[in-house]
Amino acid sequence: MVRIEKPPLGRSKAAAAPSKSGSTLNMTANIKVVVRVRPLNEREMELNNRIIVDVVDDKMLVFDPKEEIRPFYYQGVQQPNKNFLKRANKELKFIFDSVCAQSASNNDVFEITTKDMLSSLMEGYNCSVFAYGATGAGKTHTMIGNTEHPGITYLTMEHLFDILNCEKDRELDIAVSYIEVYNENVYDLLKPSSTPLQLREDSKYGVMVAGLTLHKIKTARELLNMLEDGNKNRTQHPTDANAESSRSHAVFQVYVTMRYKTSNQFRIVKLSMIDLAGSERASATGCVGERFKEGANINRSLLSLGNCINKLADGSSYIPYRDSKLTRLLKDSLGGNCKTVMIANVAPSSVSYEDTYNTLKYAARANKIQLSIKKNIVDGHMGPSQYVKITQELKKKIKELEAKLTLSTVKTVSREPDPAKENAKQECRKRIQEEEAVHGALEAQLLELMARQRVLSLRHALRTRAFSHVADLAHRSSTEAVDSMCTEEIPRQERAQESYVKQSVLLDSKVFTAWTRWDESRKKLYHLCEQALAAHPDLDYFVQNVHLQSKLRQSGALERLKQKLVSIQNAEINAFTEYMSDMPRMLKKLYLTLKGYDKVPPALTAEYLEVMKKAKSAKGITWSDKENDTDAHFKFITTLDTHKPSTTLDLTVSKNDANATVDIITDGEDLTDIENKEPVKLSAKKRKGTPIKLVNNETIIINDSFEILDTTRNINSAKKIKREYNIASEIENYGLIDPKDLNSTFVLTETSDIKKAVKTEVKMESQPVKRGLVDRTNTLQQRPVTFGDKARIVKPIVGKALPFRRMPAPTNPTNLTARTFGFGSSVPRDNSQQKNVQGRY
Ligand SMILES: Nc1ncnc2c1ncn2[C@@H]1O[C@H](COP(=O)(O)OP(=O)(O)OP(=O)(O)O)[C@@H](O)[C@H]1O
Question: Among positive and negative, which fits the CA dihedral 471, 475, 478, 481?
Fold first, then answer.
């Protein structure tokens, strides 16, 4: 028996732990994961529970397989099987390095786990095998077994002794230790003591157990007795799941010292065989009190083992070995210099459903671990004769290497490059580089021009959109606004449009010229590269690099362009958001002013409420310009396609349209009433709200409280009006008018016959014609602004909250138009329509 207190000296020192020095070989290997399914025990058989593990073959198993459902007959008819209470089967397929079915013996498990491992051990690798699983899953049976069925610890050692007996070149020493980790304390099972042993970490020898005794053994039988003795000292307590439940982790370690007879080198390898405590759930074992505390400690250490496994599987650089005694002990049995086999023991009965599932998941995770392992070779002290022998061998080796070197020098000389060819290659390189420089400059110029083209196009699109918006607002608001629109904004917009066209044409021609020159130089460069590759295939990297430079330039330019476009659009969005936030407030004031005069037609109320509802719900609004997603033009401006130069000019403004104008159709129907009616006298009753003094000294109260508005009444009145007019179906026949728009604004579209009639009617009235305003229809957004369409301004009256004198009722049916329709509708401008509608009214 050898007792190790400190790192021992000389051979025995090395025997305490494998050395990290002198490593000659590194290799990576997975943790080998073997799943063993134990047979049903008597209790499980009595319960006749479902089998939840189906071993498909020696590598695959299915957890919670689909059950065969027996047909159920009622009065001779097979009934549909609908067991709603039954949980669906997981039917999870797991593939491991090996799967041992219920029928597998300990010997079978040994054959596929540690037997092969021993040859690695004898080659100088640390090895370890550990059994993991819930309590009663068969870990101890697998690792220790019994006299009838010895476990793999015994079988491995037996085989190891067989190997040792066949050894001729090496002297081998075997020493073993057997320890348990119970409640986060380490105890020597072969030298029982109530005082726990301390773990020490040594930079040279790794983790060591201070005060641990090592026992030299010569035969496997000695070992069996030792294991038996040790197991008697192991902490065991009966639990619900296992009458002899091991409540500690048992670590059996074998140190093999191999001394080479010829070289005096020696290796120390360690084989660890670990029977872990059960990974049970407390509820499954029915543990309380002290047992519960044990269980908690077991689970804690297994949890930290799981964490280490997970981190190793993830390739993490920090592995939390220090979290528990168990992981500290197993440090070099998991991620360190070690070959590892994990045996995951599972029970097949549905009673252990959760535990089996958890063990399989744990095992699957462990399968991913990559270990970097190395042989442990330590140089020992050599005698003079050995030195002489080695020196001779080394001299021989040096001579061989010198000979090889001479040979390779000769070959190198003979392979010396042909200077003429080298010069030609250099020349090729030079010409390509020169052409590349020219091409690069042309490309940069082209990309710059294209980017300017895109920016110009975007700015113009935004300007046009803003203008159409302003125009729309102007003719909704006041005569003055429309006048100012016609005298200032439209000419300005026309000038901007002209300037845009000029700039675009200029840029387009510049782009085209630049592109032609760029394309020529591209072809030239391409040709040069092809020639160079044909003559010097080894220039392929150089040529690839040339092509990459161009790609890099293009993506850089595109990136800069996108940033520019985004910044322009952001500025636009900010301005628009600010403007939009003022609108509902203003609209509310306007509406309430009208309401104060009792001049709000129900249709307007309904529309107002609808708008305010939208404004209210638009708190978290994101101002997305959906059109841009689908707008081909927008897609075009956000790309730089050097293969095909294109124009940014909006070709929808065709030559034919040059003199066309756009209709401007203003509101006026219900509001004409407002204009003509006498103001309604305000009731004496004091109303809540903000008083506003009118020009004629009248005071109206603006009820600022949105909620106080009687929405039901207003909406109902709006509905009533719709019903009364009941023109929807009539108008629908034209395929142009959306009935829901009838009480709101305009429904004309470009292709409308009605519109043509409107134009006719416009001319009849010989109203002033302005150029440049947009068609104010509900489809305003979808229609591009075109200039030059014939426009008609009908005097706008919205925005005048002052009471006007009532005008005599018009006699001409044409002039009745304004009264006939709800607020904002321009439909009745068609004479024929008017008659129809008026008849109903
Ligand atoms: N493959 C098997 N063949 C026959 N019996 C088995 C097998 N595996 C386990 N058993 C029996 O099942 C019972 C529980 O097994 P074992 O003690 O090995 O479980 P364990 O996982 O070590 O439990 P614990 O963690 O509580 O110690 C024992 O009686 C054992 O003999």
Answer: positive
CA atoms within 13 A on the CB side of 752: 28
Cβ neighbours, 10 Å, residue 746:
21
Structure tokens given for 608 = 């107002």
What is the Å distance from ligand 1's center to 87 Cα?
A: 29
Q: Which atom of ligand 1 is nearest to the CA of 104?
A: 1
> What's the CA gap between 301 and 504, in Å, rounded?
74
State the maximum Cα–Cα separation within the chain, in Å, rounded to a whole number.
136
Tell me which range, 13-17, 289-293, 688-692, 797-801, is most confidently predicted by mean pLDDT: 289-293
CB-based contact 739:731 (threshold 8 Å)? yes
Tell me, what's the pLDDT at 476?
67
Q: Distance of CA 106 to CAs 43, 229, 360, 664, 800, Å?
A: 22, 21, 20, 95, 99
Distance 136 CA to ligand 1 centre (A): 5
Ligand 1 center–CA 345 separation, angstroms: 9
Nearest alpha carbon to residue 141 among 94, 100, 184: 100
Burial of 647 (0-12, 13-18, 19+ CB in 10 A): middle
- Cβ contact 52:44 at 8 Å: no
Separation between Cα atoms, residue 608 and residue 589, nearest integer Å: 11
Look at residue 61 and give its three-state secondary structure: strand
Lowest mean pLDDT among 149-163, 615-629, 741-755: 741-755
Give me the pLDDT at residue 168, please.
78
Q: What is the pLDDT of residues 751-781, one digit of tens each?
A: 333 333 333 333 333 344 333 333 333 333 3
Q: What is the pLDDT of residues 92-122, one digit of tens each?
A: 888 888 999 999 999 999 999 998 888 888 8
Pocket of ligand 1 (CB under 6 A): 38-39, 41, 133, 135-141, 242, 244-246, 277-278, 345
Ligand 1 atom closest to 236 (CA): 27
At 745 the three-state DSSP class reads coil
461-486 pLDDT tens trace: 888 888 887 787 777 667 777 788 88
Return d(Cα 297, Cα 303) in angstroms, integer: 10
* ipTM for the assembly: 0.98
Mean pLDDT score, 514-537? 88
Give residue 198 CA to ligand 1 midpoint distance, Å. 30
pTM (two decimals): 0.45
Q: What pLDDT, on the 0 to 100 scale, is given for residue 648?
A: 58
829: tokens are 């401008």
Substitution site in 35, 242, 351 for ligand 1 pocket (most atoms within 8 Å of beta carbon):
242
Q: Which two tokens stand for residue 229?
A: 């003795």
> Which protein residue's CA is at the shortest distance from atom 26 of ligand 1?
245
Could you tell me the distance, in angstroms and rounded to a whole number, from the CA of residue 14 to the centre of ligand 1?
Answer: 36
**pLDDT at position 143, please?**
92
- Helix 753-765 to helix 831-840 angle (10° resolution) is 100
DSSP 516-561: HHHHHHHHHHHHHHHHHHHH-GGGHHHHHHHHHHHHHHHHHHHHHH
Q: How far apart are CA 429 and CA 423, in angstroms?
A: 10
Q: Which two tokens stand for residue 539?
A: 């220039």
Taken as a whole, the chain contains a residue count of 841
Mutate to test the pocket of ligand 1, among 113, 139, 141, 147 (most ligand atoms within 8 A of CB): 141
The rounded distance, in Å, linking the Cα atoms of 63 and 56 is 10
Q: What is the 3-state secondary structure (H, E, C) of 84-153?
A: CCCCCCCCEEEECCEEECCCCCHHHHHHHCHHHHHHHHHHCCEEEEEEEECCCCCHHHHHCECCCCECHH
Residue 487 per-residue DSSP state: I
Average pLDDT along the chain? 68
Q: pLDDT-based confidence at 550, cuts 50/70/90?
A: confident
Phi, psi of 647 (to 5 degrees): -95, 150
Q: How many percent of the chain have pLDDT more than 90?
A: 10
Is residue 134 a known part of a binding site? yes
What is the Cα–Cα distance from 577 to 621, expressed in whole angstroms? 10
